[in-house]
Write a structure and sequence with these properties.
97 residues; mainly alpha; 434 Repressor (Amino-terminal Domain)
């Protein structure tokens, strides 16, 4: 029996709900994602300052710098959360407050 990360599963379900009604330019990953280019696109699309982005993601500012410098690849769960934030900007505002 294969292990399924519960956070990944939860974010996958939430992503399906949030992106279900996206008619204009849905944010999806190809079969073999390039995490760095996806991360860059999603990060810029949020419009958040780096410290706010880190807070919403639940990571340190230094971790965001590591992602941006391509030293560390965001996990699949982190990528899903980024896509959700990108697709629904009000979500990030709620998480910051």
């Amino acid at each position: 029996m294969e292990y399924k990360d519960p956070m990944f599963e939860l974010l996958s379900s939430l992503e399906q709900i949030v992106l279900k009604n996206e008619v204009t330019q849905p944010v999806t990953l190809s079969k073999k994602p390039n995490s760095f280019s996806d991360f860059e696109q999603l990060r810029r699309g949020t419009g958040l300052k780096i410290d706010d982005f880190a807070r919403v993601m639940g990571v340190s500012v230094s971790m965001v710098h590591e992602w941006e410098s391509q030293r560390i690849t965001p996990t699949a769960t982190e990528m899903k959360l980024m896509r959700l934030i990108h697709a629904n900007p009000t979500l990030s505002k709620q998480l910051i407050d």
